[in-house]
Structure formats: C-alpha cells, structure tokens
Amino acid sequence: MSVDSPARTPLVVAVIGAGPSGIYAAEALTAQSAVPVEVVVLDRLPVPFGLVRYGVAPDHHSIRSIRNTLERTLERPGVAFYGDVTIGRDVTVEELRGAVDVVLYAYGAGSDRRLGIPGEDLPGSLGAPEFVNWYCGHPDVHPDAHTEADPGGTADADPGAQIARLVRESRTAVVVGVGNVALDVARVLVKSADELADTDMAEEVLASLAGKRVDTVHVLGRRGPAYTAFTTKELRELGQLPDLDLVVSAEDLEFDASSLAVVGQDKVAARNVAVMREWAARPPTGASRRIVLHFWTRPTRVLGEDHVTGVELERTVIGSDGYVDGTGELSTVEADLVVRSVGYRGVALPGVPYDASTGRVPHAEGRVIRDDGFSPDEYVTGWIKRGPTGVIGTNKSDAVETVASLLTDVDAGRVVPRGRSGALDRLLVGRGLHALDLPAWHRIDAAEVALGTSHGRLRTTLAHRVELLAAARHPGDDPA
C-alpha cells in the first residue's frame, strides 16, 4: 500500500518581460522538478515575444520564427502569460513583491545610446530603436489616433507618422554603427515595398516604404572592417540584393597589425573581411541604389539648421592606448536622414535598483543587489542584466545562470515558498485590471493572419494598441 506524498507549496515567480530572456527563464524554471513552480510572465504590451516580434527585421523569417518555440513555453503547465499589465503604473514593484515569492526582471533595454555630438537632436535624426519599432509595427511608435497626450490625433505627436514622412522625403541616409541592427536599417531603407511584401509589416509601413525615395545609404564604423559586429550570414544577404552596388574603399581594407591580429584570432571577423573584400573587387554596375561602407570614420556633427542636411565625418585611428582617436581629417556627406545604431540601453523601472552608469540592474550571477546587499526575492536576466550584447540565443544561457542562482537560494533556504498562489490575480482584479492571457494572444494571432490573407500575404502586423486590444477580445466580451 502506497501513500501519496503531500503536495509541496509551489514557488510563485513573476517574470517582468515576455521577450526571449523572460520566456527562457520560464522555460528553465519549468524544466526542473526539484522545486515546484508557478510562473507568471507579465508584459506591458498586449502581445508576447519582445524583440523577436519588435526587434528582428520582418524580412528575417527564420529568426522571427523563434517565437513558435517561445510560445510553446508559454503553453506549458505552470506558466501563464499576462499581457497589457504595466509594472510601475498598474502595479508597483513593491506590490508585486508582496503578491509573489520571487520577481525576475527581464524587461530588456528600451532606449538607445547617444552619439553626444552637436545636431543629433535635429529633425531627421533618430535612434535605431525608434526606427526599428516603426518598421516592426510597435504600438509605442504607432499610437492610437486619440490619446491623452494627443487628444486631437495630430500627426506632429505621432512618431510613426513623422518617421513615415522622413522615409518618403529622404534621398540619402546615414546609419551610424556596424552591427546587425545597422545592417537591418540599411537593408530596409534600400529595399522596395515589393521586396518586403512577403513580410508581416503593417500595411501603413509598407505603404510608406512604397513611396520612399532613398537610393543611397552610408554606413559608418569608427573602427576598421575587422572590428564589425555583423554576423556573416546577414552580411552576405546584403550582397545578394539585386540592383544594388556595395561600395567599400580599398584603403579601408589595408590592415594594420591590430586588425591583422583580430582577423587571425576571430573566425567571424575573418569571414566578414572576406565578404567585404569580394564586394570591394566588384566593379560598379550603375545600380539604382547603393550602400557605402565607411570604416575608420566617426561622425563629429550632424549638419543642418531646422532639419538634417548632412554629417561631418572625421577619420580615426587606434591610439597607443587601444582607444579610437580622431585624426583631424574632416569631410562631409549630404544626408536627409540619420539613424544612430550604436547600441541599446536599459532604462530604470520605478522601484527597481538601477545603475545609470551601465544602464543595467546591479547584480551578481543574476541576484539583484539592493541597498548594498542581495535582495532575497529579486533576480534579473537578459539585456537589463548584462547589457545589449549577444544574439537571441545568448539569452537562454543567461536565463539558465539566473535560474540556477535562484534554485540554489531555494535549496539553501534563502528563498522560501509562502503559499501565494492566486495572490497576484486577486491584486489585479482588485485594481479592475484584466490581463490578456494566452488565448487572447491566439485571437490576436488569428486576426493578423486573417488580415494578411485579405491582402494576399501570410500575415499583417496590427500596429496600434487599439487594434490589438480589439482583436484580443473574446467574441462575447463587452467592447467597453
């Protein structure tokens, strides 16, 4: 005769952020059996997947398909998705900590690094995160027509409308940075709307791209070709676009000792350099569009009075201390649009420890440091933990490290399950909040597929929050 062992009290974990880092943390928590868990993954947006939906370029179908894997984690027993809940506004961090056993911060890096040069705030100059959000259909950049901030629905208060106008009116663009996001921006700027029609871009974004005039994009790197952060696959894709000349100066491909050392030690750098050497050897074809890569070049000033008209450039070298120095050799390029793509940056969340010097939550192996000591119920993972580095898969190992620290603390008795199942639901209901669950996301998903089908596409992104919320409603719900 056997006697069932008594059910153990589950550890209730709230994960703030439904992007890859947060969902990978949920996966790591539910993949183990030593500690019973209940995981709630919260996001301020009505939809999950974070940068997989709103950061990966729409024409990178294979990378965006990672969301299918992420969705399977959200469907696991013991995992729940709560969308359209803003921590810091709807519920404070202190209140959340009182309703669950552990809070795990995974809310990413929502801002961008600045160049710190004159003119970068001129109209026509913007950060890559804003531009990427625009072409990915992020509701922050595509606000509803009438909001508290803009009750009249004026275009001047609509960042999406402003970017669309820039795209339509610009002929030459400068992209500052030599990472994959910079390549994405350059590629979207030169591609035609027809070339992007097989993506899930919002209809209004495609319409703006159909009216664009951009035919030249200058990409600036302050170091040489050996120091780029491109992945070779993405670099090669750029070279396969038709009717495009890729221009690389032969002078930039003459390497000094430091560049040769990098190429000799880094296989990715060596492959990237080989690709760019092949581009440099191509004769000009007179194509209708071109991308010009400038290495050993940094912007020193964005030119213009009431709008961007160009960028002042300075040649650079690596100094004796290993840092990039300017040579004083200046030149200018004309430009109507400048996109800075020099890195994302984490921002502070009210009630969460934050190191402004790094743009990250202070921690040790994922354990949050608060008031000069470890906070017993707070952990962190993803870009807000380590900074905006790596690829999407990097977040998986990062989440595993944080969850390992959490489980170690449970085993040591530093974190104790306190029977808080249902406390978060009661808190939200008491506030009159109705989080969007996974079935609500499935209804949004179905609505996007249906909209895409109506336009002869596989799916079309709903870019406005009001559209997402309308699609999320159960057919029997009260629209009010």
TrEMBL record:
Any GO MF annotation of the entry: ferredoxin-NADP+ reductase activity
Keyword Aminoacyl-tRNA synthetase: no
Catalytic function, reaction form: 2 reduced [2Fe-2S]-[ferredoxin] + NADP(+) + H(+) = 2 oxidized [2Fe-2S]-[ferredoxin] + NADPH
All residue ranges annotated as the FAD/NAD(P)-binding domain in the record: 13-206
Binding site for FAD: 21, 51, 87, 383, 390-392
The UniProt record lists the keyword Oxidoreductase: yes
EC number(s) recorded for this UniProt protein: 1.18.1.2
Cofactor requirements of the protein: FAD
Annotated NADP(+) binding sites: 222-223, 234, 390
Keywords from the UniProt entry: FAD, Flavoprotein, NADP, Oxidoreductase
Family: Belongs to the ferredoxin--NADP reductase type 1 family.
PANTHER family: GLUTAMATE SYNTHASE 1 [NADH], CHLOROPLASTIC-LIKE
Protein name in UniProt: ferredoxin--NADP(+) reductase
Organism: Friedmanniella luteola
